[in-house]
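Reviewers of the previous submission asked for a worked example of the structure-prediction workflow described in the proposal, so we include one complete record here. The input consisted solely of the amino acid sequence. No template or homolog information was supplied to the procedure at any stage.
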Amino acid sequence: MEIKRILLPVDGSKSSLTAAKEAASLAAMFKADILLMHCNQVFPNLKQHLDFAKEVAKLSNEVLGPARDVLQDHNIRFVERVVDGSPAEEIADMAKKEKCDMIVMGTRGKTVLEGLMLGSVTQRVLKITPCRVLVTRHV
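From that input alone, the workflow returned the following structure tokens.
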């Protein structure tokens, strides 16, 4: 198995931080690069307001921060992408567009509702993704 590029979508949850640690280990083992990604679900009519756009950028940076720290602590090469849209579709599209060999993501997102079961985003990604998906579980 050859892994050169890993997509790591994060949402700021404990589960995505666990995924970041696993992705860092895999990247070190395979000498792979990581594409660190966050997806904003932005309402198009609010996106045009400058204050709202600045707040979204600030929040995205805060979400990426802990995963960024993990990757930097492990000396992993990575690039960041912040996109707007439906997370599952954006993750699958990014994996395809960037020719990722694997997606490493958490089982569930930040909200209590998403924590009741395997996250709906994770389930959708498993169904539509063009590559391997490693789902990590926060314990």
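The beta strands are 5-9, 33-40, 78-84, 102-106, 132-136. We consider this example representative of the routine output the project will generate in years two and three.
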